[in-house]
Specification:
CATH class of the largest domain: Alpha Beta
CATH superfamily of the largest domain: P-loop containing nucleotide triphosphate hydrolases
Number of helices: 11
Order of helices and strands: EEEHEHEHHHEHEHEEHEHEEHEH
Strand content: 25-35%
Length: 307
Amino acid sequence: MVDDFAPPTEPPVELCHVTKSYAGAVAVRDLSFSIARGQIFGLLGPNGAGKTSAIRMMIGITLPDSGEVRIFGMPPSRASQRRIGYLPEERGLYRRMTVAENLMFLARLRGLTAEDSRLSVSRWAARLELRSWLGQRVEELSKGMQQKVQFAAALIHDPGVVVMDEPFTGLDPLNTSELKDVLVELKSLGKSIVFSSHRMDQVEKLCDAICLMDHGRAILCGDLGEIRAGYGERFVHMEFDGDTLALRRHPLVESIDDYGSYLELRLRAGADSQALLRCALANGRVKRFEVREPSLEQIFIDAVRPR
């Protein structure tokens, strides 16, 4: 069900001009964004960008030096923390306890009664195909299976906001697809989901909005579709068998990524893609020629690349 803790007019998560330093080094600088109900939000950036520091303030582990964090319209508190589910990048399970013992313990910590904890453990074990593993100790599980248990632990108390740091780490394609389906279901129920990931393909498919951080600052933030549209259709994906040197030297081409028979080209502003197509046809065989908006990976590289 939709979380009823937050006033309906308030975003479930909001960071307002937040700054955080450690030993004099600024980890997050003047960071602002909000996450709406029923939204999947991607927190992205290179290593050391400040993503984890932002998450730690978001879930109340640390406090900002300045600025304000609001969860469900209020400063972080024990009550609001019970409405947040958190999946850390480093696994936080008790390795010598069984899967069932871990999930029961964490459900009780989140305020569920013993009976509600048992029901929730049973439901998530069925949903994530963990029933046959409930009696196994965590240390006996594969990394991928441990990640599924950690995923269940983050959702065991029916949180209104779910924060996930690299949720697809260690998962094979089948389990990645299974967890993706769960995230989509949670979104349809009005849950707000924020996750940090280096998997640009997953972010691009799942996220409604993103915040791209670099050196503690937000350098791109907002609706993903609007961000991509702002770059225009300046990217060409081409399957090409021929002389790539002519394409590299073409005045319309700003940059090119050559994968052999597959090319990704960035055109200069205002360039006519049809002129590039004519050049390609004159120098080889074109199997596919597609003009499109940039991928999130291209936006990411462009935004953080040193000028």
